[in-house]
């Protein structure tokens, strides 16, 4: 990939956001709630960590950009659905109008704004305006070429990866730490040796979308470039982080990417209402650290991060996502109490008592009786997932 030079200083990081990202709203009671973007940005501003100069307005993706991944017929269906011009039965054939992904007004425009935010983040990094970029409105990793799925209408990460390939000639390492398997991104590049997808998620035996087995390794020329780490239900911090640190580092050393794109779903936390994992804020302090380390080591710092899942929007997501930005910008990770002003502003709005501190209380939950068994099971799974890389390393001596 060609290096780019510019005549103005590069920012450490860009924070991509616009009010239009809040229009991606299925209903007042749907678990996917973009108020978490406001909560996170406000928390960062309260601690003086997000100056106005760091914020870059997201744009709307064009139809041509969406069509890098999505079928043109599907794009037209989404437009019609959002304007009330399609029967519900017909819409359901495309995964919209379902309980998971209901139709809402101007669905296409709101969805394209999320994709455009990730493309904005890509251009910030790949055109040399920022070393890293964060679009928390992105991370909709379940969208398919011609079908919506799992709260995701368009797949911003897949579009962004193809965009980076075509515009910048980049080899992309995609790392997904959402509790749900990053199926839409994986299948988009399953036969592509220039995109390596990594997903650490709760095993599909218990959780949507039911895919993401270790045996899903890619096909054709892409065989060996798809990695899945399906961890057991009730996995805690230490086991999650062992898989993450060991697995992702070995894969990065094997693949040697030009740029890293991370999807940062915050739904592996113990409080999340839709999953069965037992991570705490300890995990979310460490995830961006390794991403930054690998970006600096392999990619000249090129790291783009997006949001994703996270359904405890009050107690978990703002704290977890703030840590990504703080890591990107080299600011100290905070400890102790959250800002009093933030707690007083949002405490009355929250249906649950807000967490008063950056860290979770220790202990956060009762001890897991199967901890040793779960840890050993996860290690065995990791060894199986990394078998191809380790066999090749042994062959080369």
How is this structure best described in words?
Helix 8 (237-255) packs parallel to helix 12 (371-385) and helix 9 packs parallel to helix 10. The protein has helices at 35-46, 63-66, 72-82, 88-92, 107-126, 156-168, 183-188, 237-255, 281-298, 317-328, 340-346, 371-385, 387-396, and strands spanning 11-16, 55-56, 130-135, 172-176, 195-202, 226-231, 259-263, 303-306. Helix content is 38%, strand content 11%. It contains 13 helices and eight strands. The chain is globular. It starts with 10 loop residues before the first strand and ends with a helix. It has 397 residues and is α/β, with parallel strands linked by helices. The mean pLDDT is 96. It has an eight-stranded parallel beta sheet with strand order 2-1-3-8-7-4-5-6, with helices on both faces. Strand 4 (172-176), helix 7 and strand 5 (195-202) form a beta-alpha-beta unit. Pathway: Ketone degradation; acetoin degradation. This is Acetoin utilization protein AcuC. Keywords: Acetoin catabolism. Residues 30-326 form the Histone deacetylase domain. Belongs to the histone deacetylase family.
Per-chain topology:
Elements: E1 11-16, H1 35-46, E2 55-56, H2 63-66, H3 72-82, H4 88-92, H5 107-126, E3 130-135, H6 156-168, E4 172-176, H7 183-188, E5 195-202, E6 226-231, H8 237-255, E7 259-263, H9 281-298, E8 303-306, H10 317-328, H11 340-346, H12 371-385, H13 387-396
